[in-house]
């Protein structure tokens, strides 16, 4: 279990978990990679609910401000190479199909929502290793959950932003 996050209303906890059985510890056996799935659990329950399909690997996620949906950076590959060709998608907080929102050619990190819930903001660039994330800041208008063109908020900036976060007024980034 990793990447534990409270829902905005405090009634659910989301987390990532590797799918399938743990491979035997024999160092000679190379087991196939396993997908990483998003789950939630209600605070009054001890039974987690799968939010994303078992055939996707979720690299990052973030709750929408109203808690009704979750933005994801995901891929269909189960190994580390899937991170390099991931996409941004949206899924209901109750689970279901993931709606792909992008056709990215670069990696993504630092997903966040604008406070009004109308845009997803992220950092994108070409990186050599997962977790070594900096680049330009983009914002993706949601337009009722349909695909739209991301807008680069920092073209030509002389620094490399890492983890953008919006001020509560939604007019400035930190």
Fold and architecture overview:
0% of the residues lie in helices and 37% in strands. The model has no long low-confidence stretch (mean pLDDT 90). By secondary structure, the chain is an all-beta fold. A hairpin with a 5-residue loop joins strand 1 and strand 2. It contains no helices and twelve strands. Strands 1-2-3-4 form a four-stranded antiparallel β-sheet, with no helix packed on it. Strands 5-6-7-8 form a four-stranded antiparallel β-sheet, with no helix packed on it. A four-stranded antiparallel β-sheet has the order 9-10-11-12, with no helix packed on it. It has strands at 2-6, 12-18, 36-42, 49-50, 57-63, 69-75, 87-92, 99-100, 107-113, 119-125, 136-141, 151-152.
Q: Main traits of this protein?
A:
mainly beta, 174 residues
Strand order of the largest sheet: 1-2-3-4
- Average pLDDT confidence is 90
Elements, N to C (H/E)? EEEEEEEEEEEE
Share of helical residues: under 10%
Low-confidence stretches: none
Radius of gyration: 17 Å
Largest sheet: 4 strands, antiparallel
Discrete helix count: 0
Number of strands: 12
Structural class: mainly beta
Beta strand %:
35-45%
| Envelope shape | globular
Distance between the termini: 29 Å
């Amino acid at each position: 279990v990793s990447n534990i996050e409270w829902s905005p209303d405090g009634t659910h906890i989301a987390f990532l978990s590797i799918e399938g059985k743990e491979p035997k510890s024999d160092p000679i056996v190379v087991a196939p990679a396993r997908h990483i799935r998003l789950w939630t659990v209600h605070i009054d329950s001890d039974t987690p609910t799968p939010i994303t399909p078992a055939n996707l690997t979720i690299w990052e996620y973030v709750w929408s401000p109203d808690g009704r949906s979750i933005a994801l950076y995901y891929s269909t590959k189960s190994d580390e190479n899937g991170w390099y060709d991931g996409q941004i998608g949206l899924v209901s907080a109750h689970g279901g199909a993931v709606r792909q929102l992008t056709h990215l050619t670069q990696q993504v990190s630092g997903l966040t929502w604008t406070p009004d819930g109308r845009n997803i903001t992220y950092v994108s660039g070409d990186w050599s290793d997962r977790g070594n994330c900096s680049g330009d800041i983009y914002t993706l208008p949601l337009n009722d959950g349909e695909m739209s063109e991301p807008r680069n908020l920092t073209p030509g900036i002389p620094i490399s932003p890492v983890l953008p976060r919006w001020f509560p007024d939604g007019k400035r980034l930190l």
